[in-house]
Amino acid sequence: MVDATASSRQEGSTPATALIDRVTDGERVVILAGGFGSGKTEIAANLSLFWAATGQDVILVDADNVSPLFRSRELAQELSDGGVRLVAPPEAMITADLPVFSAEVYGALQSRDKKVVLDVGGNDWGARILGSLKDQLDRSGYRGLYVINSRRPFSSTLDEIERGFSEISASARISFQGLVSNTNLGENTVMGDVLKGHRLVQRASQALGLPVVSLVVNQRLAEEVLGLDPLVESGLVFVIERRMLAPWER
After folding, report:
1. 115-170 tens-digit pLDDT
2. Rounded distance between C-alpha atoms, residue 204 and residue 58, angstroms
3. Which of 7, 28, 43, 220 has its CA 20 to 30 A from that of 22?
4. Contact criterion met (CB below 8 Å) for 86 and 72
5. Euclidean distance between CA atoms 49 and 247, whole angstroms
């Protein structure tokens, strides 16, 4: 998979649209879930902006009722400028057991003309938010992707990944069809982190019986990644732009 902003500039790469289609399996509704700090919000924003750049009508649903930082709503202006419609439950309802989504979200799930990306909270309690959308999701069809960052708490071992996956799956009441390998330490990430984390995600893939559909890396590491033939040939590499910044980085 190739990045949403620089894919056309990566010599010899497969067209980005084909790679995005592979990750999403052609589904127009994509759910991104994972443990706290997995990086699902960063991926959700990049995927949404990629789709919008290709002329698609895109809605990004900020369904994260857990994280006080790094939520899609923090990118509201950037997403709007990129042609992405950001929708979130009213603040008064975001911490409810089953927050009420706007009619726009239900309408987008019913529409065959819109792409919908759901960014879900980072633990089993946060995943419960999907309960209010379950019937509609079952009718519309979706691609459920579980994001793993092995440099975050409770995701550093195979046992921890399996436990977190089981808890979030049970709470969300959806099926996951693939894993996203996203090991990173923000701007402190080095290739050793990425490769070690990816090996752990591959082990999780075997244990959970789910394919690894993407290996995500920051643009800063793109040159190094593109020099590793096995990774490039695998067709998994998704180079993203880092958009979610800590308060002290803004």
Report:
1. 999 998 766 566 677 877 888 999 999 999 999 999 998 899 999 999 999 998 88
2. 31
3. 220
4. yes
5. 22
